[in-house]
Structure prediction request, 149 residues.
Amino acid sequence: MPEFEYQNIEAWNTAIRLATAVGRLKIGSNLKAAADAHQHAFEQAGLACALIAEGSQREGPGQVGMYRDARGALAQARSWLHVLAAVMNEPGTVFGNELDLAEQASRQLGALLRNIERGPAGPRPPQRGGPAGAPPRHGGPPRPPRGTP
Prediction:
C-alpha cells in the first residue's frame, strides 16, 4: 500500500519512469550542448514529479496550478529531448520511449485536471439543448433514413 497519496496518481508514476529513463540515457557525445540538454531534460522530469507530489497535498486552485505547472515541466522535458536529439544529430525516434512517457504523463495530468475542474460527481445537466432543468425529449415523428429523397 502506498505510503503517500501522490503515489496513487498515475501521472506521478509515469513521470518517475520518465525521470528514471532520462537519467539512464547514455549520451555518446562529448559536446557540452548535449550534456546540458540531457541535464535540463532530467531536471524538468524531476520537477514534474515534485510538482505532482506537492499538488496532491493541496486543494482547489493551488492544486490545479501545481498540476498545470507539472504539465509545463513535462513539455519542457520533451523539448529538451528534441534538442538533445538535434545536437547529437539523431532522429527524434532515438528517444521515442522517453518522449512517449512524457506525453503519457501529460495526458494523465490533463485527465486529472478535467476531473478536478468538473468537481464532485452529481446530477448532470442534459447533454442536448433546451432550457436547464427541462426533461429530455423522447419520441416525435421518425426521421427518414439518410440518403432517401
Summary: The chain has four helices and no strands. The domain at 11-118 is CATH 1.20.1440.60 (de novo design (two linked rop proteins)).
